[in-house]
Amino acid sequence: MSLRLRLTLWYTGVLALTLLIFGSALYFFIAAITKINIESSLRRQGEEIVSQIQVIPFFNMNLIQLPQLNDFRTAGTFLQTNRVDGRTDKSGNFQGYLPFDRTAGFQRAMREASWFELYDIAEYKLLIYHIRMEIGGEFLGVLQVATEVSDHYNFLAAVRTLLIAMSLFTILLAATLGMYLARKALKPIDSVISAANRIEKGEDLAQRIAYRGPKDEIGRLTETINNMLGRIESMYKELESAYRTQRRFVSDASHELRTPLTTIRGNVELLQKLWKEKEGVGDPQLTLEAMRDISQEAERMSRLVSDLLALARADAGTQIDKSPVALAPVVAEAIRKAQFLPRTAEWRTGDLSALEGAYVMGNTDYLQQLLFIFIENAFKYTPEGYVELDAVREGGQIGLRLRDTGIGMNQDEIPHIFERFYRADASRGRTSGTGLGLAIAKWIIDELGGSIEVVSRKDEGSLFIIWLPLIPPPREDGEAAADGAPPDAE
Ligand code: ADP
């Protein structure tokens, strides 16, 4: 059974019960008042007549004199005396006699002083008040005071019919109106259900429930569901984009791995052919070139694989083990090693005094890797001029600045260089690279709680500033000294 029908039935039932109680109370009240009025008027009249019975002394006898009934008659009241001596008198305002069973009537009068009786005579209803007539202990007979009550009964029947008809009409009206109101009130719930159904079928997550009513329970429910849908939609979008990124990453990685593999395979096949043809080592020059290609590609592949591994670990939520690290020795070591890297630009260092006593929360190996990613890039993308490293302090942070006079980038490319496999136009083809270095660098910086700033101009050069939050130098016996020591492995 629907909620709408149940609600309607409930309040129609409650209304019907209320009307029944109220209608019955009203009917019985009117009936009781009417009865009391009629009976008290009959009783008053009867008692007055009885009180007028007189005893008149006559010689040595007492004569009993009943009052003249016609003196007491009023419109609509009929009087009759039934005496034990067999006489019956009546008021002159009606024909015939009032019904009276003399034997039973007198017997009852001995037991009861007065009583009422209702008689149906033809189409009339007569209410008759019987009162015992006696004087000085002598039973004289029964006085009957009657009135016609058909009108009252008809009136009560009309009241009853009217009450029943009005109640039925009210119940019917309330049920119809209630059904309509319940439908109107529950309509937003219907739209909530159908919207939820549409979303469940996966038609459209951008769907919202339209509601322009007041902020009542349904309004709040609609708002809550809409907010929930908003959250589900944004979560779904995030998941979808993460899934798309992951898929692109896998396909880019496969593509990148295929290139060196193809080169290696081609060279191996070439060597096989050469050695088969000449039954020996073949042309030493060609052999050497093929071997060099294989070695270079294998190296490129192992770099790519280790970069992919680093990023896969980052995706898996790997966290860098951090402890206080003194920056100066780490940077000094990077500067020393950098001079041995292949490069065409001059390698310079600027003012590094900001590094004195500078400590960060980090890890020596990862800090070295981070610096190398930027230094190697700077060398790679700077055919002539210089690459310079210096350090500055600003608001509790230390900035490692790497400036180069290389090929630079377009402004619209800068936001993308930290994406995986992204390579700016100018770099593609000209230099070898995987497009993963800066993605790894970004992950390390995020892990260390730092940030990165890039300023670059095409054909003029670039400036990368790695900002890291400084921490107070640890105490003498702290573990920073051990961790901050330059690593001896290359
Ligand atoms: P890649 O292996 O291509 O160097 P990276 O992730 O390290 O990958 O860098 C992404 C891209 O950012 C590079 O391909 C290059 O276009 C651009 N880039 C990075 N460093 C520099 C720089 N110092 N000067 C000019 N462009 C740079």
Give a verbal description of the structure:
This protein is an alpha+beta fold. The protein has three domains: 3-157, 2-Layer Sandwich (Beta-Lactamase), CATH 3.30.450; 218-315, Signal transduction histidine kinase, dimerisation/phosphotransfer (DHp) domain (Helix Hairpins, Orthogonal Bundle), CATH 1.10.287; 323-471, Heat Shock Protein 90 (2-Layer Sandwich). The chain is 52% helix and 20% strand. It has ten helices and 14 strands. The chain has helices at residues 3-51, 69-72, 102-111, 150-200, 217-278, 284-315, 327-338, 364-380, 437-447, 480-484; strands at residues 54-58, 61-65, 77-83, 88-90, 114-121, 124-135, 138-148, 323-326, 346-349, 359-362, 386-394, 397-404, 451-457, 461-471. The strands form three sheets. Strands 8, 9, 10, 11, 12, 13 and 14 form a seven-stranded mixed sheet that branches. The chain has a five-stranded antiparallel sheet with strand order 4-3-7-6-5, with helices on both faces. A hairpin with a 2-residue loop joins strand 5 (114-121) and strand 6. The longest helix has 62 residues, at 217-278. The protein starts with a helix and ends in a 6-residue tail after the last helix. The model is unreliable at 478-490 (pLDDT under 50). The protein binds adenosine-5'-diphosphate.
